[in-house]
Amino acid sequence: MGIFNNTTFAKLFFASVTSRLGTIVGMTAFTFYLLDRFSEQPAYATFAEMMYSAPTLLVFVVTGVFADTLDRQKIAYYSDVICGILSLCLLGALWIDVMPVIFLVLFIRSAVAKFFTPAEMSLVQGILTKKEYPTAAGLNQMVAGVFNLFATGLGLGAYWLLGIQGAIVFDLITFIVSALLIRSSVITEEVRMPNGARTIKDLRYTSILQDFLRGLQYIIQHKLLLTIVSGFFVIGIVNGGLTVMPLYMLKYHLTPEAYEQWTVVLGIVFGVGMIAGSIAGALLTKIWKLYTCLSFSLIMAGSFIIVSGASSNVVFFLSLSGLIAFSIPLANIAIGGWLPSIVDKRMMGRVESWITPIMMVSHTATLAIITVGFPSIISIQSLFYVCGAILLLVGVFYMILLPRLSSKFEKHQQDIVVNTDVQSNSIEPVQ
User: What is the spatial distance between Cα 309 and Cα 280, in angstroms, rounded to a whole number?
Assistant: First the structure.
């Protein structure tokens, strides 16, 4: 917990926590609202999830470029402020009760929110040391576990007690709190603008495209990074499926009459599993190599997902869900602690801007397939089998390639000569 002695990190951390908490509670409540109102049309709930993920494909060209070019602190701050304003617009859209308008506001708000993460991650990378990166990643996983433990219950509780409008108001408050925390943080100009002071007026369409493609070039030249990023496409398929698969498993297969209550229990089980997995993962990353942690986690989680598809009762399904939740944090801690140490600080935003859309392409495509094919063509069990097998294959892929590439990268780091000429703004490619 000594990392919280860094006041700036503490403010950024809690800003991220409040922003994410509100979004999770709001989206959870909105999903239940759609399932209640359109009980015979599950496509609405899946489409709402698509409105959360699809905007990445619209803004990914500029999010990373903005984070590496403009003031990162201001980007994170204004992202929260605009999302708060759009939450008010969402309340208005719900009041007039026109579904296309509701989905449009969700889409725009999600697009604006995508600017927050690259800017916030780049700020955190700049204020921490390499030894602190795994600690910060472990904390993020602990928070994710707490979210899973309480967010579903909070979202459902807000929906039951206050209605969908009350949940959206909660969303609005969290965005305001996050914005205030970001604004009050004292961050040096070197961290906020590592590539020099520039404003949005200095940007041109051609320069944005060039900077964006420069991020792709950096990933391609960095073979270790390229291998990790390639796996994110397949992981996105699993993430897309898991956003709705457990809920559909309960509602349409295991316990149709009491799926809401069991969804809360599932959230608790998943949250406890993630918290326990975060603690175990933090210990294992000090013993094992990060690439070992990553591949082992994916193989274990993929295996449990496959088995959970054959569940015939709720208790067995919940037990397997807890094991899946226990497995996942180790991979996230490994990635979160590894990427900041192998990516140049001046390129972090652009690298992140490529990782997210790569995942979101497959994430959104998976949700689209589920929207069209479930339940008429695709069964809920087959979704679990496919997603588990994909995750298992990625784990094996990483197990074979990452050790060799990691050794080569470490050897290269011993020989590389760091160019300190900031004015040249040149990035040394890592083979």
Answer: 26
